[in-house]
Write a structure and sequence with these properties.
Length: 149
Amino acid sequence: MSAQSVVPRFTVITLGVAEMRRSIAFYASLGFARKFQATGEAVAFFDTGGTVLALYPWDALAHDAGVPDAPRPQAFRGVTLAWNCRSEAEVDAALASAVEKGANLLKSGQQTDYGGYSGYFADPDGHVWEVVTAPGIDVGEDDRVHLPA
């Protein structure tokens, strides 16, 4: 296969987690459907409607990638996951739901400088999620993000 025939695609986001059982319960409680459960707690896969969210033990993921598993960062990692919504009310409801299920609210929903509305939460392992509605980015009836051409 030549480099010209390679088609780039984003298929899976894998998060390193400290406690598989806790993280599996958290993401299931958010409403993500767990798939391929035959993997038990070795790795967990969730259908997100377009890509897959995978959970894997932090130390095993670091070992697999060939990087040290400590020290674990306590500061912002320079990455966020996004949950796009149709309205400000949906942003607020999603933030409240995540916090109710064990997330840490980092920033409540508020107007953005680009005309949107967003807030942030962190999952039990500190992975940061932005919950947002943004002008020009539409969430369709299929719950997928649709970008303008």
